[in-house]
Write a structure and sequence with these properties.
By secondary structure, the chain is α+β, with helices and mostly antiparallel strands. The protein has one domain: Zincin-like (2-Layer Sandwich), CATH 3.30.2010.20. Helix content is 42%, strand content 14%. It is built from five helices and three strands. The longest helix is centred in the C-terminal third of the chain and has 19 residues. The radius of gyration is 14 Å and the shape is globular.
Length: 116
């Protein structure tokens, strides 16, 4: 089972997931870029957050840094999907999961909330 979408369509689905976030959440995102790659080398990941979570940033310790990075792995996501609706749902879940890391929420807590 693998449903393929074009890179452009996948990026549209990612943008749709981000734009669907509540304003109270999206307005608090700071210095974060969302990118798409095919797969994580040697790892089976749908997404990856790399950066300094908002909860660990301080006024004097957080300046002149590169943006946090959320990477979505298109082929890995598509590999578990049977149609575009499945891709949309998995992209949304992955975006929410990785943005939660941006806000300092851990994997164990995401598991408790059903977003792991």
């Amino acid at each position: 089972m693998m449903f393929e979408v074009s890179n452009e369509r996948f990026e549209e689905l990612a943008a749709e997931a981000v734009s669907g976030l509540p304003e109270s959440l999206s307005s608090r995102m700071d210095n974060v870029a969302i990118i798409v790659e095919d797969e994580a080398r040697g790892r089976n990941l749908f997404g990856l957050y790399e950066g300094i979570p908002l909860t660990r940033r301080g006024f004097s310790s957080y300046n002149a840094v590169m943006p946090d990075r959320i990477t979505l792995y298109q082929k890995t996501i598509c590999r578990v999907c049977a149609n575009e609706d499945d891709v949309r749902a998995q992209v949304r879940k992955t975006v929410i999961h990785e943005i939660a890391h941006h806000f300092g929420i851990s994997d164990p807590r995401l598991d408790e909330l059903g977003w792991a």
